[in-house]
Amino acid sequence: MTPVSYRARIFSRAWVAIPLCACVYLGWIDSVRTGRVEYVSGRAGWSVSEPAPGSSARGGWRPRLIVPEHDNVSYEWLDQTRQMFARGEWRVRRVDYENAPYGREVFSTSPYRWWLGLVAWCDHALSGRPSGQSLERAALLADPLLHLLLLVGTTIFVAWRLGAFPAALVSVGVAALFPLAGDFIPGAPDDHGLAQAFALWSMLPLLAGVRALHSDAADAGRRARRWFFAAGVTGAVGMWVSAVTLVPVLVGVAIGALVAAWVSQGNAAKGPAQTPGIAPWRDWALGGAAASLAACLVEFFPAHLAYWELRVIHPLYGLAWLGGGEALARTAAWIQGKPSGRRPRDIAVWVLSAAAVAAVPFAMWRTRSLGILAVDLPALRLVRLPDSPIASDSMAWIEKDGPTLAALATLLPLVLVLPAIWILARRGSGTVSRASISIALGPVLVALGLACRQLSWWSGFDGLLLALLVAATGTATHRLSVWAWSALVGLALLPGAFQVFPRDDSGKENALNQTQVVGLIERDLARWVAIHAGSGGAVVLAPPDETTTMYYYGGARGLATLGWENRDGLGAAIRIVSAATPEEAQGLVLRRGVTHIVIPQWDPYLDVYARMGSGRLEGSFIDRLHHWELPPWLRPVPYVLPSIGGLEGQTVTVLEVVDDQDPAAAAGRLAEYFVEMDQLDLAASAAQALRRFPADFGALVARAQVENARGDMDGFARTVDLLLPRLSNGADRTLPWDRRVSLAVVLALGQHMDLARAQLGRCLAEVDDAKLRSLSAESLYHLDVLSKIAGQGIADPRLRALALDLLPQISRDRLEQ
Description:
By secondary structure, the chain is an all-alpha fold.
């Protein structure tokens, strides 16, 4: 071995240190993010006590994971994977937690659910945790593990087939390129990262195939065809994961293939077996078409093959790929100088190929669907990290935010395209480099155009840029070019490395940002609604974020989310909140089986629904609810938030759908609701309205409650004096059970303990499961305090345990003092 070759080998091996450093960097940032998610998720609630280990509530465990940045798509993946385990389904084709009571079809494909489920199954097998807990553990591990596998697998493949230097560069890019690296965050499972991984891997076998095609090996053509076929298979699997991501990549590959045929014209004399664009592109299309059709069968056979949702993998894509591959091969051959046939057979092949390609846009036109071109809300977000930019397009983002670090980290990698174009344009560049760059450049330019229209496509641009980087540096052997590329890549990726690293509030142990606080509230609220709804479960009308979390944390079904598969549920919610009259709204609510309406003050999306339905908020049903013009079939239920930094003064209005109440009872319950919510000015107004019912016994009880809460002890005493003679005359005979509890409390506060004990005895004698759940936490606490003072209690042990379960832990602690 000569000294030169020895130094070259040492130099080559030195690049191994860079992927190792990239792996360490990934492990570092993922551990920081995982620790933060675990800290936030571990915070206790306040309205519902945590089940004791071994209790009957879900085996002593409830869902706890607070998904970072409230990524609703992540909740969907978790819910569907949980259903897959619970029902023993390997394909989830329908869910019932949205568009209640009918449910909706599921068109999202299975590969990512299988990956998430596999990680959860491994955790369950190794740790013995309950399946739900293992699933939440998998949510923390699945995407970071996928990121690590992408880094390691890509680095090894590129080093094996294309060289150590491009492998080192691509390892850094996978770890630090922004926003691509932000698609693999712990605790927010989503198929976007998996789709980007397959987009990159749909390109790497093509580059290996080009390298094999121009080698001096005797079987170069056969090897090339194998690599092109493999590229078609990986592209098809990627399209199975996300057709929205992979179909534009395939279009870009076709564009790049034509450029590659043009720059390789001088190579045409080598014969068809070694000419890019003749045999290999047919193999590429055959592999892709066969794999995509097989994926359709695996995913949708037999009952769903007649679907026409072109946002997901569809047999028409396989047909178009096959026809497009044939047309591409013939066009590339013509560019390289091979005469095009004019025989009837050749013309028929051209016509059939064009028809196969045209089948996709024709189907989109016939079904009036944009298919993969449709834009949804996640597409408007750059990355799933805190404070991520959200805008209608890239220009709007830059105009709104200006020159931020996120903008610099996103746009600076564009400089890597320029030297690749220069190598392509320089006639002195080798055929391998020019052909490889041509094939990789097409998808990059397509992705760049889409990224200008949708922020989420910048991640796709990054993944394809890595393939272009491999193509451009695969033949870099001169020491000066190696260091020049290294410096340029380092400059382009450095802002992204800083942007990807967690820097929000991760170092402040007790600090929570607003999204995390809202996540804790939604988890607590979902559990609270679930325990008060009982075994029948709840059906909620709420904004989309709360609808999603209500099911995940509490099992409550809902109507509307913003997912494209839930158009019917969204339409039903819009019709209800925009209804012109309460009677119209009631009919729609009863038809849908809604049990609760949830209106968070910080999330005005129900107002957006009203404007979508009638064009204005004023006069709509939701506008009436905002002004407390409640119909008799709605009862407000107090849900009290603790004092939380960042959401001071915010409330959540929870309205329960009940049988029609008489006006006096409804007004009395509304007054007591304001008392428990500490909205004493509204309580005073409601008490004044109660004077319209001077003969109603329950109205007097509610007035006494308001006067006591406002500190008007003289007024309270006068009202109690009005109650006593009516009580002796039996005016309480028809008093509803919850109003009787309030009467017992008022009598106790008025120092009439004998009368209070009598009312308490009647309450305890009539108590049942539904009555306990109908009480607010404060009323239930007062009932327990009175029972303790009077030496009475609920006789049924099950109901006694339920009464304790319904109390928050702070109330339990007060009772035990």
